[in-house]
Amino acid sequence: MSQFIDYFCARMEKNRSGRQRQEIHSCPELMDCIQQVGFLPLLESGIQGFSAEAAMAEECRFTQFDDGTWEWPLWQWKGPVVTEGNCVYGKFFAGKAGFISRAWWPDFYNWRHSKNPPLEEGSIEETILMTLREHGSMITRELRAACGFTGPKMRGKFDAYITRLQMGCHMITEDFVYPQDKHGREYGFGWSLLTTPEQLLGRQACQCERTPEDSYQRMADHLAHLLPDATEKQINRLLF
To answer: 98 by DSSP, 3-state: which?
Structure first.
């Protein structure tokens, strides 16, 4: 596991003394870790050990049972983390999902908006975003149908647009919605309930007094300190 755990999670800070490194065992511990580190990819990030998955204790990792069922605490926790953890969730890191604390969100939003110019009028991305704004929030499959992506192979094309909109901080995940079986039990991996950051957080939470370049430098310096073994290219890949 990367040294970012050692720097910012007090429960793990004794690792350098040679004692056994502690790991994340619960949803509250994951929420605390996100607040400490500021940026945390959900799964593999391209920087060894820098993900929520890598920080999990062994008993909290994905487990497949003989009957085909599975258990994955990290996946089950992501909903409560998004709704209660004072953070923002979306596909922010090279098209992959992750968490950003609200304290760091204004800088991230500021930088990403500067790298992604306003959506072209009449473009597919603008149509998708306008549809979402009209409804406030929608699960992915409902938004896809409302935008007419209903034909063969349309799901993959639509998901690519959604990823680009999230990378540009135009769209985030508000929560996760799960189908239920005949007994009322939730199952499956769930659907993202999408919204805009302005709708969920308010416009004030998306404003930053710094220039985009200053926001970028502030984040890059933070990640360089957090991940001393990461290269500049790896850090840039997370932020661009």
So the answer is: strand
